[in-house]
Fold glutathione transferase.
Amino acid sequence: MIVYGSSMSPYVRKVLAFAAEKGLDFELKSLGLQADDPDFRAASPFGLMPAFRDGDFRLSDSTAIVTYMEAIKPDPALIPAEPRARAMTIWWDEIADTKFVPCMAKMFFNRIVCPLFLKQEGDLAEADRAEREDLPKLLDFLEPRVPESGYLVEDRLTLADIAIVQPFANFGHVGAGVDAARHPRVAAYVAEIQARPSIAPWIERERAFFAKVGYEPNR
Ligand SMILES: N[C@@H](CCC(=O)N[C@@H](CS)C(=O)NCC(=O)O)C(=O)O
């Protein structure tokens, strides 16, 4: 199995973490945004990462890819079978992809992607506004929904947790950490899930990259 993309993308890191939690054997083919690699393009017609290949089967979109992984290797179950738990898991995945990631992207794109990869000035005002106005609203939403168990669905690890914590790694990269005094449950929850061996090494690798290129969050 091949996953195409960069772990810096929360969508890609979600797939990498999911595959690792499943114990699937995969290789990451590292690519930048809109890469023209023909294998990547064959799997991702719109040029979005992650893309995926298993033999002659090609696919893109993180949720589609993890759905395939769940079907070919049901154990351990990361997308529950029980109807309500299953629906809630997909809901959390969607919240991650359509609420948390777009908020994070305003900061990550303008503070990191623009200066570091595109060699152009980012819209720092937009990044600051997202951090000041959008992020606290999302954290206020999440704070009362983090259960005592430390898992969002079925009191055990599911795709819901794997998806929701990914943008938080990028929040960290851009210097927008969670204030544990204001959002203590979120802070503890994110730290716990991110520490899993399926996730932590990717974040470490990204931090090492930023340290190597001398990146300091530009705010
Ligand atoms: N819904 C897709 C979103 C994928 C996506 O937007 N990936 C971004 C990177 S985080 C990308 O490849 N962007 C390149 C572009 O927009 O041209 C998924 O879940 O995989």
Notes: The domain at 83-212 is CATH 1.20.1050.10 (Glutathione S-transferase Yfyf (Class Pi); Chain A, domain 2). The two ends are 39 Å apart (CA to CA).
